[in-house]
Structure formats: structure tokens, C-alpha cells
């Protein structure tokens, strides 16, 4: 089983790449953010610890589930709290990722395991992948996608981009660069070529 890590800046179009890998290569796709969301659900390994740390006001009173907006509001107002939440969540997410990798290694049908996360490099996931792919798109293209697709303001986009790794850093630390600035057919050709190697 080959393990590929997929990363890139906001708006680079990582989802299109993941969809193609799943549909055309039968890849098992694991999105770290979605996994973190599952661990925050009632019964998940982060649910109780987060309530102990942040208080019951982060819960949705109707469902008993953690309200993402309330949690975000609380932790982004307090950098120390954000650090504590990250220290709680990241090891649990990593533990579950490693468990799923081991599980999929036992499945002969699973030839390609793709792990996607914005912070793959920052969190040291390049040490558990066979290859790191950087999905690149020109900044102007990314900005337009985020405005059209998510309704983000220029200020919000700039703020997110400034917190992410720089273009040279992504390129330096990844094995494969997929340029997703132009026609999607061009992106698919690059993916095919990368896997053909």
C-alpha cells in the first residue's frame, strides 16, 4: 500500500485532486479535519476532554454535540486555550490516523491511502507517508475561488494565507508538485504522470 500525503494552501483545489484519486484509482481518502470532527462527536475520544477544558457552554443544548462555532469563538479569543486544544486534539488525531493506516494495510484491495490535511508538514506527517504532494495554484486563482466558493473577504483570505507555509517552503518539503491553476484536465494529467512513476 502506498501512502500519499496531500497538502497545499487554502483554495488550491485539494478536494478536486482527492476526488480524482478516489474515483480513478480507488484511493482510500482520509481527511484529517473530518476525522478531528468525528473525534469531537459524543463518544469520540476528544468529546469529554474538550468539555472539561472549555466548559459546557460549547455544547449545543438541543443535541448535546459540540457546537463548532461556539468552540471556535472561545479558543480563538484566547491563544493559550487554542494551544491547549491543539495539544489535546493533535495526538488523538495522529493516533487514529496511524490506527487506520495499519487497518488498511491488512486490506489487500487498498493499494493507495491518501491523507489530506492543511498542516501535514507542520505536524510531521511527512514521516509516515511515502510521498508528499503539494497542490499548487496561483494566489490570484486561489483568492477568486475562495471569494466565489466560500464568500470570503479579501481580509479573511489574506489572514488565512499569512498563517500557512510559504510557496518555497511547500515546494522544498514536498516530493511532487501538482499545479492546479488552470484547466482541471491538465491537473488530472499531472496526477496520472505522478502515479505512473
The CATH topology of the largest domain is Rossmann fold
Q: Strand percentage, roughly?
A: 5-15%
Q: What best-fitting shape do the alpha-carbon axes yield?
A: globular
Helix percentage range: 40-55%
SSE order in H/E notation? EHEHHHHEEHHHEH
Quaternary assembly:
single chain
Distance linking N and C termini: 15 Å
Q: Which residues form runs of ≥5 with pLDDT under 50?
A: none
Mean pLDDT over the full residue set: 93
How many domains? The number is: 2
* Strand tally: 5
- What topology, given as strand order, has the largest sheet? 2-3-1-4-5
What is the radius of gyration computed over CA atoms, rounded to a whole number of angstroms?
Answer: 18 Å
Instruction: Kindly provide the name of the CATH class of the largest domain.
Output: Alpha Beta
Class inferred from helices and paired strands:
alpha/beta
Determine the CATH superfamily of the largest domain.
P-loop containing nucleotide triphosphate hydrolases
Biggest beta sheet summary: 5 strands, parallel
CATH architectural label of the largest domain: 3-Layer(aba) Sandwich
Number of helices: 9
Amino acid at each position: 500500500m502506498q501512502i500519499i500525503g496531500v497538502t497545499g494552501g487554502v483554495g488550491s483545489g485539494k478536494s478536486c485532486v482527492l476526488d480524482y484519486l478516489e474515483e480513478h484509482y480507488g484511493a482510500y481518502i482520509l481527511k484529517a479535519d473530518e476525522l478531528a470532527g468525528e473525534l469531537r462527536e459524543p463518544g469520540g475520544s476528544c468529546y469529554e476532554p474538550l468539555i472539561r477544558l472549555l466548559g459546557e457552554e460549547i455544547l449545543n443544548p438541543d443535541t448535546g454535540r459540540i457546537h463548532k462555532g461556539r468552540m471556535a469563538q472561545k479558543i480563538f479569543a484566547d491563544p493559550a486555550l487554542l494551544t491547549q486544544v491543539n495539544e489535546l486534539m493533535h495526538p488523538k488525531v495522529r493516533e487514529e490516523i496511524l490506527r487506520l493506516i495499519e487497518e488498511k494495510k491488512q486490506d489487500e484491495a487498498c493499494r493507495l491511502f491518501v491523507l489530506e490535511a492543511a498542516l501535514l508538514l507542520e505536524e510531521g506527517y511527512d514521516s509516515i507517508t511515502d510521498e508528499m504532494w503539494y497542490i499548487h495554484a496561483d494566489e490570484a486563482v486561489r483568492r477568486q475561488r475562495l471569494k466565489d466558493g466560500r464568500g470570503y473577504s479579501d481580509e479573511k483570505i489574506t489572514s488565512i494565507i499569512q498563517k500557512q507555509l510559504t510557496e518555497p517552503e511547500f515546494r522544498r518539503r514536498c516530493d511532487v508538485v501538482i499545479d492546479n491553476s488552470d484547466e482541471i484536465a491538465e491537473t488530472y494529467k499531472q496526477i496520472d504522470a505522478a502515479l505512473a512513476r
